[in-house]
Every structure is written in C-alpha cells, then in structure tokens.
Amino acid sequence: MIGDFFRGLFLMIWKVVSDQPDSKAEFLSVFPDVLQPLISVLLSIVPIILVFAGLFALTTWLERKVLGRIQNRLGPNRVGPVGLFQPVADGLKMLTKEDIVPHSADKVVHFLAPVVLLVPTLLAYAVLPIGRNMVPINLDAGILFFFAVGASTELSVFMAGWSSRNKYSLLGAMRAIAQMISYEIPLILSSVSVIMIVGSLSLVDIVEKQGGYHFHFLPRWFVFTPWGFAGFIIFLISSLAESNRSPFDIPEAESEIIAGHLTEYSGFKYALFFLAEYLGMFAVSGLGVTLFLGGWHAPLPFLEGWLSYIWFFLKLLALVFVFIWIRGTLPRLRVDQLLNFAWKFLLPMSLINLFVAAIWHFTSGWDTVAGGVGRWILCAAMIAIPYIWLGRSLVGQKKVTHRTYRFAS
C-alpha cells in the first residue's frame, strides 16, 4: 500500500512536470472510491495555493527592489541575502501583531470582510489554463465564472468600510466601489471581443485558438491584431484600477483618507487584504495572458515543445513587472480624473473595439496580400481616429503647461 502510494505520487509529479495528461489517475487509484473525489479536489487546490502564495512572497520582495532601483535606493537588504527573507519577516510580524477591533465596529462583518475577499480570489484560479493539460476545471463558461466570482470583491470592500464605523473607512470603501464598478465594465467589454472572435466562453478554447504561427515565426496571439492590441491596452488599464494599483490607488490615498477601508484593520486581517490584493493582481494578469498573449504557447515555434507552464509564468511575471514599473512612474489620479477617464474614454473605446473585432471577423475572407493589408489599415484606422478624438475631447480646452516650482525666499 505504501509502495503504491509513493509510486503513484512520484508518477503524478512526473506527469505534471512533463506536461502529460491524466496526471492524477494513477495516484487516485490508490485510495478508496469514496475518497477519490475529495483527494482530487485537494490535489488541485493545494498546488494553486502553494504556488501563488510563494509568488506573492517573491513579488513583494521584487516590487520593493524594483521601486528602490527606480527611486535610487537599495530596497530590502538586511534580512537574508539581498533581502530575500524580508517576506518571511513581514509574515511573522503580521502574525504576531495585535488584532485591534474598534469598540463600535460590527465585529462579525469586520472579521468576515477579508475572508470574503480572499476566497473568491482563489476560486478565480480554478478556470485558468496554466499549462498544457493543466487546468483545474475546464468549464464551458470559464471566463463567465471568472468574472462572476470576481464581482464579489465590491461586497467585501463595502463590508470592511461599513463595519469599521469610521468615516475614513466608509469614504474609502465608497471610492473603491465607484472605481471598481467603473473599470469593471471596460474590463469585461475588452474580453468580449476575444469571445466574439473565438466563439467560446472556455478559456481552454481561447488558448487553443491562439496556437500556431504566421509565416512560421509570428505567433497567432490576439495582441498582434489591431483589435487585440487595443483590447489588451484597455484590459491592462482596467486591471490596474481593479487591483487598486497606482495610479488608481485612490481608495487607499493616505494623504486624504489614511488607508481607506483598511484604516481599522491590523495584524493578520490586514495581511489577508494585502494577500488578496496581490492574488487578484496575479489572477487578472493570468487572464490577460490567456486572452491576449497566447496563454501557455511559446513565442517561437522551436520553443513550443518546452514545458508549457514556464511560458505562462514568464508572461505573468512580465505583466507583474509592468504593474510595478507603472507604480514607480506615474502619480496618483484625482477622483474626477479617474471616473472621467473610465466613462468618457475607456468605455467608448471598448465599445468601438467590439465593432472593430466584428469587422475583423467578417473580413477574414480577405486572404490575399492586398486584402490582408487593407484589412489591417481599415481596422487600425477605425481604432486610431476615435482614440485621437476621444483623447482630445477628454482633455478639452484645458491648457497643459509645464509645472513650475517656487521656493520661499
């Protein structure tokens, strides 16, 4: 029995590492039929939690290092070699800090808010195809499931702000909800263009549609089309806002409302919010990789046979690096700028991009060289012209000048 257990375990690990199908079948046969469904679920959940929790720890260190480089400082350099053990120190600090709850707070809701935020974030990973034959659940409506579980984040943020009985917390929660709803619409609409082209809500089908190469070297990723590039930029900007990342971190504007809905949280509860924010960033980045960057497909044909999940995580880390880079580069927006940008620019552009994606689909018969070039020019012009017009109308007649600095004499 023990020998069969370890043999099945090692065989399962080998099949997972080498991208082979049915990796769990041999290992599950060791257990009784009654326990097999439960063991199968655990074998899908535990690796996801371990991998992305480890990625969370690595990203917190990487973000501090990159921001330190941008700001001409060292970043973490005391705990462990080059500060690599800083996430461990931070975790221990959060575990040992006192959990302070305001006397007038709704203690049950105050406790449930970080849990309600973290659990749906983990559920979103259930439909992401991390590699070849590596998707926990292949749902026919996988992208619909992803957005459905992600919609509960607004509820958890409001629970945190309302239960704290603090004006700063409530104001921060309302800001966050207004921002998340405003940018969730263009985020979903940018994904609808991909669904239209593929004709499926399954994330596995979307990745398979992007397989192959043009001219034996150019990937068939949607980002290399006019509508796909525009959709990817809209998706990326909306993802920043959904993740409360700079320059859209208004819900936690410390100079105005202390820490927003997190003001009355400390210790491990605060760490859960922090963890859920990063896990949400990983999830939405993984969705962006799946929709526009070919998922686990390699960038070049001769690399396609390599371990598929490596390419998925490299693309994911590249997007995370872009998020960090933007945080260290752009200043925070005002509330009116943020909402105007969402409703007056991103939303119209996402609707126009849907129409362009439809034109791209119905002109797929233009298979000659001249037809392909004309197709590109037509779709690119249909995106570029509204982009310029909407951008100028958003700025309006405001006179933009260089900032001048005056010092007291």
CA(first)-CA(last) distance: 84 Å
State which percent range the strand residues make up: under 5%
Q: Give the strand line-up of the largest sheet.
A: 1-2
**Average pLDDT metric:** 85
The description of the largest β-sheet is: 2 strands, antiparallel
Q: Which blocks of ≥5 consecutive residues have pLDDT under 50?
A: none
Number of domains: 2
What structural category characterises the helix and strand content?
A: mainly alpha
Could you tell me the radius of gyration in angstroms?
A: 23 Å
Gross geometry: globular
Topology as a string of helices (H) and strands (E): HHHHHHHHHEEHHHHHH
Helix tally equals 15
Question: Percent of residues in helical segments?
Answer: 55-70%
**How many strands?**
2
Written description of the protein model:
The chain has 409 residues and is mostly helical. The protein folds into 2 domains: 2-48, no CATH class; 102-348, no CATH class. It is built from 15 helices and 2 strands. It has helices at residues 2-17, 25-28, 36-70, 86-96, 107-123, 142-150, 153-163, 167-198, 203-209, 226-242, 254-257, 267-292, 308-327, 335-362, 369-395; strands at residues 213-214, 218-219. Strands 1-2 form a two-stranded antiparallel sheet. A hairpin with a 3-residue loop joins strand 1 and strand 2 (218-219). The longest helix has 35 residues, at 36-70. The chain is globular. The protein starts with a helix and ends in a 14-residue tail after the last helix. The mean pLDDT is 85.
